[in-house]
Write a structure and sequence with these properties.
alpha+beta; 4 domains; 20 helices; 51% helix; globular
Length: 500
Amino acid sequence: MSNSSILPPELKAIEAEILEYARAEGLDFPEVCFEMLDFNQMNQVAAYDGFPSRYPHWRFGMEYERLRKSYAYGLHRIYEMVINTDPCYAYLLASNLTIDQKLVMAHVYGHADFFKNNLWFAHTNRHMLDDTANHATRIRRHIDKVGLDEVETFLDRCLSLENLLDLHGPGIQRQPARFQETEQTEEPAGRLPSKEYMDAYINPPEYLKQEREKRKQEQVKDRKFPAHPQRDILLFLLEYAPLESWQQDILGIVRDEAYYFSPQRQTKIMNEGWASYWHSHIMTRHALKPGELIDYADHHSGTMATSPGRLNPYKLGIELFRDIEDRWNRGAFGAEYEACDDQRTRANWDRQLGAGLRKIFEVRRIYNDIGFIDEFLTEDFAVRQQLFTYRYNQRSDNYLIESREFTEVKQQLLFQLTNFGDPIIELVDANYANRNELYLLHHWESLDLRFDYAQATLENLHALWGRPVHIETQVEDKGAVLLSYDGRQHMSQLLQKPAR
């Protein structure tokens, strides 16, 4: 990839100016390399999730066609893209106005700072630009060796399972460390009580050896496999499924890329809010010229606008960061502030702490979207931003406001963000009924699985595992249900157990 030296002189000067402003404001980021693309090239890179090279698959072509038609019909416009690598690569749309390029560069530096400093990105591969190219080469090699149809079919199955990950796995240890055997202090297995002088007759060595072997066999029989529930089902399949070497390689590629992109999904509101905060701050405090004000206001407001039925992460993120900064500047937090029930006093509260900027940098470093919303979205903020929940009404054939209650709004927002709205599924037994069958458990949260999705998932798991697959779930008004697939037909049965 070429770097920012290919920019025309005017944009190189703007880049140097925005870079100086970003550094002066305390942003910390690796080298950022800008590249100019026309709209067709931008759509190609966007279809590849920001990378110039990906493995061959029909979904990328489908996404490109969607983007191309959407751009042609004036339904969308990609002003920029930036990828989490070191150095960071960012793409500018060649048809952007100069004011747009300024805004985009400031926005990109915000993203680059977030990528480098947010803890949820600490484990990500900063050399993914090279790795995606290597992944493409390896999959093309498998296609040449095995055949396009077989590789594509297997890749489809892997991609349909790419959300069966442990999103927090890179940062925590779910299973205890392996037990380190120490010298045994208990009585040997099977030893009968006896006086010391009679022990050789009552507990002969042959008898003790037989008892030890018997105890080992019982322990193996009782041992659960896996010993602990597994959320990273893809890793379990990689280690234990009867896959050929090329299949293991493809499944590993899908898993690696899924883990690379997961922090971006976990921090979408914060990441876009942080970048928007800094492009707004840099433009309005430093870089904006009087003649550029109208165009800037028009394009910035377009980015912050909300559409009916959709949550705008740019808008929610920037407003929440501004609210945090304001509250910590005024000292509007803590037990004393929360205990105050006079609205006028709360509105005029100002302890002149001036800690707002330091606080938002701290928030940027520690939180993901769930913690961000849970910790800092307050009732006052929800009222000012006019947040509400809505629901489809079949009688009127329209969406209606369901509630403006703060607890319901916050709960619904957190529910949507948890696991990206996907069901939480764990593998609890890989030898179910002692038949080498997979048994999965769905953590039901008052929302039923879609049976067509569940059945398709079971089919794809069966294709990788080679044995019947089951998933236990909950169905409202019915109770626990076991869905199964044995390679020929789907089965469903009610379980005689209390609802979880």
